[in-house]
Amino acid sequence: MSPLQLQYFRERLLSWRAELLEQAQQTLDDLRDDAHHEVGDEADRASREADQTLDLRTRDRYRKLLRKIDAALRRIDDGSYGYCEETGEPIGLRRLEARPIATLSVEAQERRELLERQSRGE
Predict the structure, then answer these.
(1) Residues 52 and 31: beta-carbon distance below 8 Å
(2) Which of these, 46, 49, 54, 84, could form a disulfide with 105 (CB 3.0-4.6 Å)?
């Protein structure tokens, strides 16, 4: 992968990371805002609690995604970005464009998913 392509993916990952951090902070700010907790009946409170649960799950997904983004940035730094962790073959640019945190080529990912389905007995 050329230095220009690596820079493109670095900037894309950093932008994605900043967006996730901003959204996570907004979720925290919303959860800390007690003003809307004081009003409403039981149905309103139940709805708020369901919304908060969803927000917390989303925040957890963001946390996991942030770790994957950080790992991808480290791979850019160490020169292993864009190579399949199982085969060592290059991961296609189209795959990286669709999923910049990809660590497997399409073929390796398909094999992994097939093995997972077989192990679950599907």
Answers:
(1) yes
(2) 84
